């Protein structure tokens, strides 16, 4: 069965382990994770605090290196890539939505959405502007385009962050507690939006969440306990 | 706009107070440097102008007479000899017309003038004064020393009869315009001249001793018919006078002395003044650099979250480095523009307050465009260098840590 999955796998983790510290005192965070995410999948990653969710997400997001094990992004082994190549791959293949929105305060909502494209192409263009405006319209913020993040509500900021994650057509979107900082109503809306854009864009989504109510709405749930996948 | 420039500009704009502090620091620094430089340049220029007002840039003379030894020591013969220095006779430069023509053709030479100089007595009534005869060709000499501008009475008219003397000599002899003065040399030759002009070159000793007569009169009085005792030369770049004098000396076989050698003490003074000014400027630049660096270090810490986000979104370390280097450079450049203005303002203010009793500025301050360009360049480079450590720190930030800690 894994062979047939490989062809459409966006990311494949094989026996990924992560330890922190050295000098004999090491903390093992992840114990041999095997995980494959398929194209278009919408997966929730759940687990108690300290179970290694964030570490796993950072490793999938190519922000951290595993102690051992391999990560393949669209069939390509990342273990041999340099810092520079990883950064490039990150920009091209991954979109991030963080818990605390993490927009850049000095830029407007529109410019924040354009940022991944500007970084990729080295400059701003009108094509980027159009694409970003289109996405902001999709997330319902067309009238807030030229606002700086501090003039937007938490839910609005998260919508901008989602638009930003989508702008570069990244095949894999990683979200770390995207609703963690929002009230229930706003959280529901954001979650609904994530499900919708998953349908529309065909990108793979991996959502870390605490909220079992939201996890239930995902097609696939991966549970992490003490650095091991239990379901 | 390139993304690095956009990010650098926005970061600067966002950290308003910090940016203003950095700009203020650069502005003060550049202001001080511009002020100091123009002050010292002006001061030195006026000192040099005053010194060279009555001097040629370089003077060429016949080589000194040497005592020649008749018996020379060889490998077989040891000679014990007492060699006495010869007394120097007043002698003409050989082929001086030809040498003058050659000098005039050189591009670095702007004026050449022959001079017959020697001592004599000036007598009027019962007064006798020792003077220095200056036999000149007036139209040539005035291109070296602007004598007409020093004239207090009469005019600088030098002919077979007319001569010009200094104010102090005129007072000593009790002579005014139109009075006759007898010139007599040690070997008895004499001539009578009429005072046509009285000058004040600002140096009492020269006012007391100089008597300007024609080349021919001086040649007759000093028994140097057809000859000249020295050739005065003015060069285009007065600070190259020493180098040119060495070239001329070796090419003509004459001795050539530049104003820099004649006024060696002054040159030492000017050099040490410049050196101390450079030292002050250097430390000003260093302190400005520290100011920029310390503000940027704080800014990097404050911006670590943004740096983390940018890194996560595919922004390379090198690009982060460039963004912060650019901030330093921009602060340096923009700050130096304000600083140039501040410096110019200070200089103008100083020039308008520091005045002689007669209302002329004590010395002209010099504001050259090149000085502003250099200041802007130095400030920009200083800004970039000062940003190096903070920028390296920003580039090294681990995006995971940066995002988590925010």
Query: Beta fraction of the residues of chain B?
Result: 15-25%
Strand numbers in spatial order across the main sheet of chain A? 6-7-8-3-9-10
Q: Give the low-confidence spans of chain A.
A: 1-6
Please bin the fraction of helical residues of chain B: 40-55%
Please, what is the oligomeric state? heterodimer
**What kind of sheet is the major sheet of chain A?**
6 strands, mixed
Q: What is the CATH level 1 assignment of chain A? A: Alpha Beta
Based on Cα principal axes, name the global outline of chain B: elongated
What integer is the average pLDDT of chain B? 88
Number of helices of chain A: 8
End-to-end CA span of chain A? 18 Å
Class from secondary-structure proportions of chain B: alpha+beta
Give a verbal description of the structure:
The complex is a heterodimer of chains A (231) and B (406). In chain A, the strands form 2 sheets. Chain A has a 6-stranded mixed beta sheet, sandwiched between helices. A 4-stranded antiparallel beta sheet of chain A has the order 2-1-4-5, with helices on one face. In chain A, a hairpin with a 6-residue loop joins strand 1 (9-20) and strand 2. The radius of gyration of chain A is 18 Å and the shape is globular. Chain A has one domain: Rossmann fold (3-Layer(aba) Sandwich), CATH 3.40.50. Chain A has helices at residues 2-6, 53-60, 83-93, 109-121, 126-138, 154-167, 184-201, 212-215, and strands at 9-20, 27-38, 42-46, 68-73, 76-77, 94-97, 172-176, 204-208, 220-225, 228-229. Chain A is of the alpha/beta class. The model of chain A is unreliable at 1-6 (pLDDT under 50). With 406 residues, chain B is α+β, with helices and mostly antiparallel strands. Chain B is 53% helix and 17% strand. Chain B contains 15 helices and 10 strands. The model of chain B has no long low-confidence stretch (mean pLDDT 88). The interface between A and B is medium-sized, with 30 and 27 residues.
């Amino acid at each position: 069965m894994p062979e047939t999955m490989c062809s459409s796998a966006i990311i494949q983790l094989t026996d990924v382990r992560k330890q922190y510290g050295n000098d004999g005192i090491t903390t093992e965070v992840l114990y041999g994770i095997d995980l494959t995410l398929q194209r278009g999948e919408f997966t929730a990653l759940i687990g108690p605090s300290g179970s290694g969710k964030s570490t796993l997400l950072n490793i999938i997001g190519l922000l951290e290196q595993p102690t051992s094990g391999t990560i393949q992004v669209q069939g390509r082994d990342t273990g041999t890539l340099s810092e520079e190549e990883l950064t490039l791959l990150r920009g091209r293949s991954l979109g991030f939505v963080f818990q605390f929105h993490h927009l850049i305060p000095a830029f407007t909502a529109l410019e924040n959405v354009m940022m991944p494209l500007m970084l990729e192409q080295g400059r701003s263009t009108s094509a980027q502007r159009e694409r970003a405006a289109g996405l902001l319209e999709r997330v319902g913020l067309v009238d807030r385009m030229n606002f700086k993040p501090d003039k937007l509500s938490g839910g609005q900021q998260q919508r901008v962050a989602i638009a930003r994650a989508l702008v570069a057509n990244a095949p894999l979107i990683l979200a770390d507690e995207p609703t963690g900082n929002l009230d229930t109503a706003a959280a529901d809306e954001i979650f609904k939006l994530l499900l919708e854009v998953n349908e529309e864009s065909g990108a793979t989504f991996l959502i870390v969440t605490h909220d079992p109510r939201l996890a239930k709405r995902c097609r696939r749930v991966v549970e992490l306990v003490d650095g091991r996948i239990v379901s | 706009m390139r993304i690095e420039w956009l990010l650098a500009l926005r970061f600067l704009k966002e950290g308003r107070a910090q940016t203003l502090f950095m700009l203020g620091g650069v502005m003060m620094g550049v202001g001080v440097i511009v002020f100091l430089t123009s002050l010292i340049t002006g001061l030195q220029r006026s000192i040099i102008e005053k010194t060279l007002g009555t001097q040629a840039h370089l003077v060429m003379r016949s080589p000194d007479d040497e005592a020649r030894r008749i018996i020379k020591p060889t490998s077989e013969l040891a000679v014990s000899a007492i060699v006495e220095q010869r007394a120097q006779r007043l002698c003409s430069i050989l082929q001086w017309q030809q040498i003058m023509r050659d000098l005039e053709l050189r591009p670095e030479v702007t004026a050449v003038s022959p001079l017959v100089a020697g001592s004599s007595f000036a007598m009027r009534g019962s007064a006798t004064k020792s003077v220095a005869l200056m036999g000149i060709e007036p139209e040539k000499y005035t291109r070296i020393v602007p004598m007409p501008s020093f004239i207090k009475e009469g005019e600088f008219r030098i002919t077979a009869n007319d001569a010009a003397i200094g104010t102090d000599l005129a007072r000593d002899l009790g002579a005014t315009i139109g009075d006759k003065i007898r010139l007599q040399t040690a070997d008895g030759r004499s001539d009578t001249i009429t005072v046509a002009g009285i000058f004040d070159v600002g140096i009492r000793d020269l006012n007391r001793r100089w008597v300007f007569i024609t080349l021919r009169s001086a040649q007759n009085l000093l028994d140097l018919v057809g000859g000249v005792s020295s050739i005065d030369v003015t060069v285009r770049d007065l600070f190259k006078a020493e180098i040119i004098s060495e070239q001329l000396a070796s090419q003509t076989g004459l001795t050539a002395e530049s104003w820099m050698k004649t006024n060696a003490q002054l040159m030492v003074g000017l050099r040490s003044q410049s050196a101390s000014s450079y030292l002050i400027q250097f430390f000003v630049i260093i302190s400005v650099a520290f100011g920029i660096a310390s503000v940027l270090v704080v800014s990097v810490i404050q911006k670590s979250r943004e740096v983390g986000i940018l890194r996560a979104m595919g922004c390379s370390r090198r690009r982060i480095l460039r963004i912060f280097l650019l901030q330093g450079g921009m602060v340096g450049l923009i700050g130096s523009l304000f600083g140039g203005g501040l410096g110019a303002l200070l200089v103008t203010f100083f020039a308008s307050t520091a005045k002689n009793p007669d209302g002329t500025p004590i010395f002209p301050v010099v504001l050259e465009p090149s000085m502003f360009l250099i200041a802007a360049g130095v400030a920009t480079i200083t800004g970039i260098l000062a940003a190096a450590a903070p920028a390296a720190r920003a580039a090294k930030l681990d995006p995971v840590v940066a995002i988590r800690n925010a």
